[in-house]
Amino acid sequence: MAFSTGNNSAEVLSEINITPLVDVMLVLLVTFIITAPLLNNAVHINLPKTATTAPPNDIKPVTVSIDGSNHVFIDKREVNLTALEFELHELVAHNPDLSLSLQADEGVPYRSVAKVITNIQRAGISKLSVLTATGG
């Protein structure tokens, strides 16, 4: 597209006027700056402040472990997966307020962990902690 400069010369102006393009870009930039904070869909909740507490020293939680070979242990004692629910029932019979910690090797498939969690639930244990390693 060619424009003439207005005088009667045969010279054609071949430059693009970028002022309207800059104006449109600035309007879009201002629009995005204004609307970006409104796109946050997070629910703001003020959580209550609590003090950290330690469990009583006389009650030690029972630890259920799954090693890399899918062997299940209750406090370092190997237990067959089919007998796990029965063993946990006996522990709950002696201590109805039993708390349990579950730890599994990172190479263990989720299916094995889910089976152990199902046995824990069927045994009637409601206090379960899942232990993980800290760090990056």
TrEMBL record:
Database matches in InterPro entries? ExbD (IPR003400)
UniProt GO molecular function: transmembrane transporter activity
Residues forming coiled coils: none
Topological type in the membrane: Single-pass type II membrane protein
Q: Which UniProt keywords apply?
A: Cell inner membrane, Cell membrane, Membrane, Protein transport, Transmembrane, Transmembrane helix, Transport
Q: Give the residue spans that cross the bilayer.
A: 20-39
The GO cellular component terms are: plasma membrane
Q: Where does this polypeptide localize?
A: Cell inner membrane; Cell membrane
Identify the main location.
membrane
GO BP annotations, alphabetical order: protein transport
Subunit-structure text: The accessory proteins ExbB and ExbD seem to form a complex with TonB.
Q: What does this protein do?
A: Involved in the TonB-dependent energy-dependent transport of various receptor-bound substrates.
Similarity section: Belongs to the ExbD/TolR family.
Indicate what this protein is called per its UniProt record. Biopolymer transport protein
Q: What is the lineage of its organism?
A: Bacteria, Pseudomonadati, Pseudomonadota, Betaproteobacteria, Burkholderiales
